[in-house]
Amino acid sequence: MQTKSDQPDGAPYLRLFNGVDELQGELAVPELESPCSLESVLTAWHEATVRLEQTHEILQSEVRRLNDELELKNKELALNARLADLGRMASHVAHEVRNSLVPVTLYVELLKRRLLEDSGSLDILTKIEAGFTALDITVNDLLNFTSHREPRWESFPASVLIQEVCEALKPQLDAQSIHVETEVEHSSLICADREMLRRALLNLALNALDAMASGGELVITAFEGPKGFLLEVADSGKGLSQNQLNRVFEPFFTTKSNGTGLGLAIVHRIAEAHGGRITAANCPEGGAAFTIELPAVQMQSKRMAA
């Protein structure tokens, strides 16, 4: 006779048998008083059948939930593996391109000084510089996307950060006839990495400007919510399609002919690095809104002390 110790991994089998016994106990037909009528037998049978159907529905619901969770986790693992490969490749390419850009940019600057009297040549050099600037922006996007540094926590006024970004974009805002409206209390403080959040806000503002090539309104709102601090950037453009809403934070996804598709992916990574998140939605009156949600100051203070 085989004992419990002889069985391979006996504990799971015992738990399974115990679970079956418990289930059978729940579904067992109640004891009937003797003598019993046909009506009492049918009633007891009906009650057992109802309990069995309810248990079956519960089990089916749990199986569906577990399958959904498994599918979601598999997608996350596949995406993380893809992002890791892309990150390593992008980092290598970005460093190599930047190393090549530095001397070329210096030579262009030297050549520009020698051609101060030749306006035609200067125009050509200006176009070359513009090309190098665009390439440098792409390299910076790649490096920011592949950067995994932890936030350097500090507390600073939200209004000062927003004003700084708006001033940096003023020439482009004026050129596109875009009106800026800010809604933020001067006493509002953000606990975050200032440089990382400035980069995120700048990327969101630039994304909004791209959506309003013919002019419009840019609204930047910052306020303390019940669960933390919210920073929202909204535009009056044409909004986002359902496909764009589903994929807007994917790396390298872009609808622009000259875009890298990394701007919003960088913002997404910055929000996650702070323990927060970013969401996108269409505004009821038109346009799109991107909202960065940061944890409450108390939670951020604990991060600063850690």
Automatic annotation (TrEMBL):
Residues in the signal sequence: none
Top-level taxon of origin: Bacteria
GO molecular-function term, one example from the UniProt record: ATP binding
Record's catalysed reaction(s): ATP + protein L-histidine = ADP + protein N-phospho-L-histidine
InterPro entries: HATPase_C_sf (IPR036890), HATPase_dom (IPR003594), His_kinase_dom (IPR005467), HisK_dim/P_dom (IPR003661), HisK_dim/P_sf (IPR036097), Sig_transdc_His_kin-like_C (IPR004358)
Keyword annotations of the record: ATP-binding, Coiled coil, Kinase, Nucleotide-binding, Phosphoprotein, Transferase, Two-component regulatory system
Organism encoding this protein: Bythopirellula goksoeyrii
Main enzyme class: transferase
EC assignment: 2.7.13.3
Domain Histidine kinase: 92-298
Pfam families registered for this protein in UniProt: HATPase_c
Protein name: histidine kinase
Ranges in coiled-coil conformation: 49-80
PANTHER family reported in the protein's UniProt record: PEROXIDE STRESS-ACTIVATED HISTIDINE KINASE MAK3, SENSOR HISTIDINE KINASE
Transmembrane segments: none
